[in-house]
What we know:
Largest sheet of chain B: 8 strands, parallel, barrel
Signal peptide (chain B): 1-19
Radius of gyration of chain A: 25 Å
Structural class of chain B: alpha/beta
Oligomer: heterodimer
Distance between the termini of chain B: 38 Å
Main location (chain B): cytoplasm
Largest sheet of chain A: 8 strands, parallel
Active site (chain B): 346 (proton donor)
Helix content of chain A: 25-40%
Subcellular location (chain B): Cytoplasmic vesicle, Secretory vesicle, Cortical granule; Lysosome
Strand content of chain B: 15-25%
Family (chain B): Belongs to the glycosyl hydrolase 20 family.
Strand order of the largest sheet of chain A: 10-9-8-17-16-15-14-13
Radius of gyration of chain B: 25 Å
Distance between the termini of chain A: 26 Å
Amino acid sequence: MYVEGLGRHTCPSFHLLLLLISLQVGLHSVEGVWPLPQSYVPSPEQYRLNPQAFYFGYGKQSAAQSGCTVLDSAFKRYFSLVFPDFSSGYGALRFSVDKPFIVEVTVDHNDCEGYPNEDSSERYSLTVSAGLASLNADTVWGALRGLETFSQLVYQDDFGSYFVNKTDIEDFPRFQFRAILLDTSRHYLPVQTILKTLDAMAYNKFNVFHWHIVDDPSFPYQSRTFPDLSSKGAFHPMTHIYTQSDVRRVISHGRLRGIRILPEFDSPGHTKSWGKGQPDLLTPCYKGSAPSGAYGPVNPTLLSTYEFMAGLFKEVSSVFPDSYIHLGGDEVDFTCWRSNPDVRAFMQKMGFGADFTKLEAFYMENIVNITSSLNKTSIVWQDVFDYHERRSSLSVVEVWKQGCYLCEVLRVTKAGLKVILASPWYLDQPGPTHNWARYYTVFPLAFKGTEEQKKLVIGGEVCMWGEYVDATNLNPRLWPRASAAAERLWSDEKQTFDVNKAFPRLKDFRCKLLRRGIQAEPLFVGHCKHEYQGI
Amino acid sequence: MSNTLKLTVLLLALSSCRGLQFNHIDDYEDESELVFQESEYGSLWPLPQKVQISEVSFKLMSASFQIVDAKESSAGPSCSLLKDAYRRYFEYMFGSTKRQQHTKSRRTGLSELIELQVWITSPDSECDGYPSVTSDESYELSVDQPIAVLKAPKVWGALRGLETFSQLVYEDEYGAKSINGTQISDFPRFAHRGILLDTSRHYLPIKVILANLETMAWNKINVFHWHIVDDQSFPYLSRTFPQLSQKGAYHPYTHVYTPADVKMVIEFARLRGIRVIPEFDTPGHTQSWGKGQKDLLTPCYSGSKPSGSFGPVNPILNTTYDFMGAFFKEISTVFPDAYIHLGGDEVDFTCWKSNPDIQDFMDQEGFGQDFTKLESFYIQKLLNIVTSTKKGYMIWQEVFDNGVKLNPDTVVHVWMGGTSSDEMSRVTEAGFTTILSAPWYLDYISYAQDWQKYYKVEPLSFNGTEAQKKLVVGGEACLWGEYVDGTNLTPRLWPRASAVAERLWSAKDVTDINDAFNRLSLHRCRMVERGIPAEPLFSSYCPHEYKGL
């Protein structure tokens, strides 16, 4: 009753792999670390870890010492992640004879109260030896990555004892920008769901949460300056909104995990919900010579539009500490603009003729200038680059369209602009196959460009659009498929191009995610020692 | 109807908001984007056969409303099946508001509904029995002031009616529970409305199975087809052959179903009017059986020597049939349903071909090189064994295709895509009862609203006489387990399986996709509110979002 071709004929190699895995289980070791560190030298020498005699501490030379919020709270988190079974009551009865094991963290800079940014170093080195793991990093953000790696090195035998092997690791990310986009407009995602995603992102060493916070269907961001936007534009003005304290919570949760929060306020298209709370913001569409009652994109001809935008972005710039801001600019439908006589008159006045891309470029340039004056670097979707003639005002372009996306990457970098690549990682589309490998066998730099151009590719992004996704299905749809992208963006491509080699490690990592309460779906048949316990 | 169903409008009508995805792979371009409007049938799902809803509305107070046995009911106070159901549905209707109103003061007398009386009309309520393919699930529901009456010949119909009643209750703008005057007369179009879950490719915790049985009841699904074992693992803990799961499960303690677990599943299902049909698929799909049962599987040969690998069940040994006899004797006592699913699909002949003993046997029996004959030989003997346990059987279509002699009451399960209409014609022409699964393989995934595809299926669209069509007793949605476990099963199943549920319950002419979208959107929010992570149909919101994290 199972249709042939899906289960068994497609992947004979899986069967071999499964055999290999069952053999390796007997060795009581870890499959490895996900994403794979740049240099990873394990050894068979094994040390037993006793939770009663295990400590995190700061090295003498460390610029950060006790009281460092980022690391103090990370120590607390990672203790539970390293020892998932540990409960103090059970351990207290045992007479502790083990010698202590210390994870000693040394960082060169005390950025404990700061935010991660586009220049933050995430480099670390980790040396595990008898009784001591030395973790050295430039910044606390690098130390966080190293703690995650350490937690993945610890494993349990069948009797529940914890072990770690002698190991040497030197690690740093291949790309500085490794993002996940969640869409909270097409469906509202409870804050808990967002925080949980940030947890899982940290396990995968993602470092940017791209918050596509508003769009056509709803405006859940509660603005201090323009409260009507959410009170009229959210699905529900009380239950389906993000208050300022919700936003602060997300930002703070992200910061403690070394994750930047990048908000997107997409305009001039994708703004239907804005119009409900802000009269005259959207363009009235015409049918013949009379307004039809429908509205199109933001009205680019009115001064009041830019006053409003300046006010909104001023607020957004102060609420979100990151130096980047995403301005959207994608998929603008010109039909409504074209129908409106005032817009047409404006076009004439500006000498745009009938080329509405010029009008869009005019609008975007104004918005970019607003954010530049607020000292923010703007990111735009590729549409803006494609339409724009004066590209010098742009700085970062996100490539999202399918097809030859590397051709677009080539064009954008040729123009000297930075690129974020999203096209191969549209994870909201579940089918047509279950194959995770298509998110893994992506080669972001496989275009014919100079070294300088390749340096302009600052990273990539997993997009989880919300048409068909809400809190009921987000997690299994995101994990572990996003993990495939995580490794592509962090690890060395030469060491990680082989899907079959990656498979057992990813399978193991997926079980680790389950153990940590992340509802990561299976890659193929098989089981985890600790299955997901929810429904 | 403006005054009647004051349901909170859940969905914003958004016609053009696909976001950044005009390039997605869209197989179903005929699937229009639907715009939510309130249906005149509110949130009823699946739609009853006959519904009349008036504009008069009544209030229900959690402090005073009761569900009780009608005096004339043949099910007395000892019918715990109904008592459990009364409590369950009371909690669904009032669960979230239980706290607030304990003051009876605000009685609006005239417009209050104080009672739902449940009246089992036939002398035998079947309260302590098990549901079967012939169970009467019909009911009549009359909601009028001051009491509502639910009449059903058997408890099975009463369960369906209680679900319908709970679906009629809504919150008005002030949060008060309300219901409109309503007359419903209802019965299922098909008797067998099933869902297959696969617990071999991935182990499903009992909690997940029970949660989905509960959800099946909300969708009036009445068969849980438990594909309990397969190649990958054997989680069924057999009393007679404990080594099967000891050696064949993913883990002998944490990844098994004990007899107590199985009993719990069966009773939980019975209380919701759901049959549990176990499938023990042979002779193929049995790799995991071989781990705990020596000599059961055929040793494959490489040249003149055994290769070390094993193929399907070995059909030439007497020990095989001794084992099967004892095994199915146990199964027939553990599972009360009148049917067992025996599988019989996808037998790979390569291994049989390689084995010299099998070759000798083929010669001896005069089968030549036709291995379907050997398969039939095996199945025939198996069917005889199962018949001797007084059970009926279901089999996958290949067994019929291969010409095995089948008992007249055999149910043939049609699963192969593409040609399923022809197969339905052939099976019913031969006089066999059949159920359809081919269009409802829910483990296949695709972008956009594939529930519409499942909804648009017409099971009786094949060529055949009226008598042939009567032989189609229903269908099953199959959720195979290669890529599904407890992490993603529930949102992948619901509300997509709800589309199948309505197709199998409601009248043939219930095909309005817009109306279905409107009702299903609300039905999915109801499932979410009752705690089940049913995934969204499209951009929208529910008043009570999923809080399961």
